[in-house]
């Protein structure tokens, strides 16, 4: 450097000026950012996508996917447990909720739930309750209730009450039956007999 300063002052002066500019804090940050961006977005090493971009690029989950099955089962349980109308799955707010929770999930049509999913859930639940009644019910009590829908359609509900082998009180709603005829003792008795027969229960118990 001393040789340049003594014999080539103009070159020395220019070099010193460049060194000062390169060592300033502003240029260090700029250089670091540029180098970092260059290293991450070079042709050999493309920019790494964000988590959301990576998820979107994966596309829609197939219906056979484990995650998709879990969500569909949860929606089915939600519809049945809370008596929610089937068309709720096609409402904008519900779809937006699912897009936030799982962008890759595509909500099945309402007919899929009404004709397939809820039917399968009912069959599985009935099978489980039948096994429970067969294994642990020696005696039971039952209550019934007559009620009408908002459209004044009459129904009778039947609830079974039992104590299992571990002395746990359990209640199982075994049926809600449409009663189109006159609500006479004979007609109501016939409805209750139908429910007991359907569940394989002996009224003498």
UniProtKB/TrEMBL annotation:
InterPro entries: RNaseH-like_sf, ZnF_BED_domain_contain. Residues 23-36 have a biased composition (Polar residues). Residues 23-47 are annotated as: Disordered. It comes from the Eukaryota. PANTHER family: ZINC FINGER BED DOMAIN-CONTAINING PROTEIN 1-LIKE, ZINC FINGER BED DOMAIN-CONTAINING PROTEIN 4. This is Zinc finger BED domain-containing 1-like.
